[in-house]
């Protein structure tokens, strides 16, 4: 897949950290550190620009370690990168802890999963087919 990297961090392409990892870690690509105060949210640039093929998307997800240790998560998780987007991939981090968090250049702040998706067209009808579930939801099948 085609990618352009503005290398501010000394790191090049996003990488899978292990052989069968689903996500590639995304690094902050910064001129200077960014501090997130408690409950503050900021868009963090990654320095990457992509050309995903039609039928693919990229999902931006939190890293569990940052969430567990520092209360840091991706506010719009999973963020959606559309195949026709040509801007810089950014990560919307929010600090849910009671301590400030400093994001430094090159830090792995989130992960990105590339996924296939369908593009459908609607058939607008008056009546939908019957199912056992019907309109049941929100715990309708009970607890155990
Ligand atoms: O975490 C994210 C989410 C989105 N984007 C970029 C890529 C995506 O293709 C574009 C639009 O995202 P989205 O559709 O989620 O935002 P929107 O609020 O609906 O804006 P738009 O009206 O531009 O679609 O912004 C990111 O860089 N990071
Ligand atoms: Mg949109």
From TrEMBL:
It catalyses: dUTP + H2O = dUMP + diphosphate + H(+). Keywords: Hydrolase, Magnesium, Metal-binding, Nucleotide metabolism. Residues 12-142 form the dUTPase-like domain. InterPro entries: dUTPase, dUTPase-like, dUTPase-like_sf, dUTPase_trimeric. Pathway: Pyrimidine metabolism; dUMP biosynthesis; dUMP from dCTP (dUTP route): step 2/2. It comes from the Bacteria. Substrate binds at residues 63-65, 76, 80-82. Gene3D superfamilies: 2.70.40.10. Its cofactor is Mg(2+). Its EC number is 3.6.1.23. Pfam families: dUTPase. Belongs to the dUTPase family. This enzyme is involved in nucleotide metabolism: it produces dUMP, the immediate precursor of thymidine nucleotides and it decreases the intracellular concentration of dUTP so that uracil cannot be incorporated into DNA. This is Deoxyuridine 5'-triphosphate nucleotidohydrolase. The gene is dut.
